[in-house]
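Predict the 3D structure for this chain.
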Amino acid sequence: MYLVTGATGIIGRPLVEELLSGGAEIRAITRDPQQAGFPVGVETFAPEAIHTALRGIHGLFVHPRAAKDNTDELLRLAAEQGVRKVVVMSAINVDDDPGQQPSRYNGDRNAEVERAVTASGLPWVAVRPSSFAINTLGMWRGQLAFGDTVRGPYGGFAEAVIHERDVAAVIARALLDDALLGRRMSITGPEALRLDEMVPIIGAAIGRPLRFQEVPAEAAAQAMIRNGLGEQFVRALMARYRREMERPATVTTEVETILGRPARGFADWVADHAGAWS
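Done. Predicted structure below.
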């Protein structure tokens, strides 16, 4: 029996599907169990029922946003209930200076949650994905509702974004396979793509001649702030783009090594989500 926290999120839902396909029994933690929509056989629990949900669990997945400030208590209960393995997701930049991690300004505490898991005394695996390919929806879908041009800064910034299903598949393998215990695994997509290369790939999938138009960083930052993003997050993001333009993007082969197949590319992700752009 395996327990998934953050079960209805971007990673939690495909993780439940991956575990089910492997024949595992699943319990899922979600804030609204009645609306979770999982297949028959998946037991759902609200966060306040965590003590009950942990009974008889072999492996626990800790999502950093779901656990966050309650991680220590979650791990204490897990140890009391005899949980034999904990898999935690953090991020590929988890060891960077906190001030250089944009997601921290949106409340993420990847370093603290991962550290709590690895120091808990329970057998553990830490999965550190690169940026999710699905983030491009949040960045660009709004603009594409009004035309075929995406305007943004630092078109030459490149990263190996990862398909959320690959993240879920690696986490599932970590839960099911004890050979990965004690590892911190940095996982990425198969190749680094520039922002101005990603936009035409989206266009090819949805049948539109999309292009990227670079705009000054400060103008882009002000627009993002006007649209409701926190200024500290925006400034950290722009600093990341500027800083990482000067060094090669990180690309690992961990997904292929762990799963025995190549990681899904950005074009695969776009094809899987083509309907989300309309």
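The longest strand covers residues 124-129.
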